[in-house]
């Protein structure tokens, strides 16, 4: 099934816009994982099992696996999600961006090696750096537009002939999106910007990180970013769910945190 179809089904049938981010940091795991052979896989798998019914997607962040040589654990994690929870799309947060010939290999890594359904990309190198990902017709890509961090201002707010650079990125991505595979990353820390980009691109889906640990306003973000169908958003929370407890009850506490967040999002949708 195509990434966009999987997502639409999760929105419609499971009534959730929540995405649980999988950013596994060994230092924050409960003690029982210290002696595991595959701690990143085992920890994330318990989180996935505890939260699967609450999400529209999972988003593993590649740096947390690659920095410790745990790529095989990431591959197995995504394989298990697809096998045990078919229909839940996996977005690999990799923020790639390179010339076409190299981008082909990054696309192969994300979609063939890791088996992800979607990937995050930088827009900085332009259309031909994105095109190799679109050759995988069932897959999707979210392009960085207005990121959740403070330093995003350095470039994204630059004036481009009377409009900020992130508006130009939104317009360009809408233009490149001839196949319906593209969306935008916009931080929940900037609800006003979410609103302005929704007005420019009513048809694009948004990946929205920044609630939870980064303090983004759930109610304002949802109201600003949802589309006419009250969907169009994948709202990510990683640390606030993963590390809701460091005790043996971590999975149960993660589930409660996910349920609370899903319900808060749904309340804001009205
Ligand atoms: O603008 C962006 C783009 C990506 N991220 C990623 O999302 C998660 C956020 O984690 P939290 O623990 O919920 O803060 C993380 O993987 C980032 O790399 C982002 O935060 N902002």
TrEMBL record:
<dbReference type="InterPro" id="IPR011995">
    <property type="entry name" value="OMPdecase_type-2"/>
</dbReference>
<dbReference type="GO" id="GO:0004590">
    <property type="term" value="F:orotidine-5'-phosphate decarboxylase activity"/>
</dbReference>
<dbReference type="InterPro" id="IPR013785">
    <property type="entry name" value="Aldolase_TIM"/>
</dbReference>
<comment type="pathway">
    <text>Pyrimidine metabolism; UMP biosynthesis via de novo pathway; UMP from orotate: step 2/2.</text>
</comment>
<dbReference type="InterPro" id="IPR018089">
    <property type="entry name" value="OMPdecase_AS"/>
</dbReference>
<comment type="similarity">
    <text>Belongs to the OMP decarboxylase family. Type 2 subfamily.</text>
</comment>
<keyword id="KW-0665">Pyrimidine biosynthesis</keyword>
<keyword id="KW-0210">Decarboxylase</keyword>
<dbReference type="InterPro" id="IPR001754">
    <property type="entry name" value="OMPdeCOase_dom"/>
</dbReference>
<dbReference type="GO" id="GO:0044205">
    <property type="term" value="P:'de novo' UMP biosynthetic process"/>
</dbReference>
<feature type="active site" description="Proton donor">
    <location>
        <position position="95"/>
    </location>
</feature>
<dbReference type="InterPro" id="IPR011060">
    <property type="entry name" value="RibuloseP-bd_barrel"/>
</dbReference>
<feature type="domain" description="Orotidine 5'-phosphate decarboxylase">
    <location>
        <begin position="17"/>
        <end position="254"/>
    </location>
</feature>
<keyword id="KW-0456">Lyase</keyword>
<protein>
    <recommendedName>
        <fullName>Orotidine 5'-phosphate decarboxylase</fullName>
        <ecNumber>4.1.1.23</ecNumber>
    </recommendedName>
</protein>
<dbReference type="GO" id="GO:0006207">
    <property type="term" value="P:'de novo' pyrimidine nucleobase biosynthetic process"/>
</dbReference>
<dbReference type="Pfam" id="PF00215">
    <property type="entry name" value="OMPdecase"/>
</dbReference>
